[in-house]
Amino acid sequence: xxxxxxxxxxxxxxxxxxxxxxxxxxxxxxxxxxxxxxxxxxxxxxxxxxxxxxxxxxxxxxxxxxxxxxxxxxxxxxxxxxxxxxxxxxxxxxxxxxxxxxxxxxxxxxxxxxxxxxxxxxxxxxxxxxxxxxxxxxxxxxxxxxxxxxxxxxxxxxxxxxxxxxxxxxxxxxxxxxxxxxxxxxxxxxxxxxxxxxxxxxxxxxxxxxxxxxxxxxxxxxxxxxxxxxxxxxxxxxxxxxxxxxxxxxxxxxxxxxxxxxxxxxxxxxxxxxxxxxxxxxxxxxxxxxxxxxxxxxxxxxxxxxxxxxxxxxxxxxxxxxxxxxxxxxxxxxxxxxxxxxxxx
Length: 345
Prior knowledge:
- By secondary structure, this protein is α/β, with parallel strands linked by helices.
- The chain contains nine helices and ten strands.
- The protein has helices at 10-21, 75-78, 84-95, 138-151, 169-181, 231-242, 256-283, 290-301, 308-343, and strands at residues 45-48, 79-82, 105-112, 117-125, 127-129, 134-136, 156-163, 186-190, 201-209, 217-227.
- A hairpin with a 7-residue loop joins strand 9 (201-209) and strand 10 (217-227).
- Residues 80-210 form the MPN domain.
């Protein structure tokens, strides 16, 4: 069986070495970031704050390391990294809502560090709403979070979500409860009605405002929503995206061989792009980037050096093992079918 090996083009090696050896540019003087233009920031939503019973004093924190909570000012440059599994869970809870329910709410879970806020999971919370009052099953939310901590202890409560595009007085009451569970909680809205022809997803944080001694209100300030995903989530998203090009919105799962072929084609396209960039740098069409050069040098050094003969031997050995396992599986299946027929005689 002919072996196929991946060869790194010499142009890529030369460009990477040249860029890596290039001296670093002198450090630029520190620049002061100017505030964003007011026209690009959505207008904050202000909702009157109804009278709420003061929260009881929090219990002392248990000993040992605790997950990091949201802090003020908001980390991550006022941006929230949202994973696709959260959006899928919210849509699923909306599709399974009780009859007559206008919207669904739930708890957002995730992780926080000094540079980013990631919403990685969520669960729905039962509630009832009317024009005059709202009732939320807080005991259910607490029990669900306790169970979730046993599986993912690193995820903490980041806030809550609600379907719809409006922030009502009831939202203020629910947000006040989550303020007891998480400092500076996030409020995520998902427009399930598709008013603009797409599912609008927005995130907010609240700030108390008003005149001292007078009626206080809450201002919901918008945050930037960015999308992040793990490798396993990326596979599911790519599969779902393929249904957009299917006439009946249904697509079958790809076999292992098809997935390997798709991944190989994607790698080949990426190598072609890198090769074109290296040729442009060598010809002087594009200025050399030291960061890209060092990245390419690290990538080249990670490529295993295997001779074609050794690669062919390894491949043939794996193929023989696979054929043997397939033969034994088929033999076992035939033996089981034969035993069933003998027992039925």
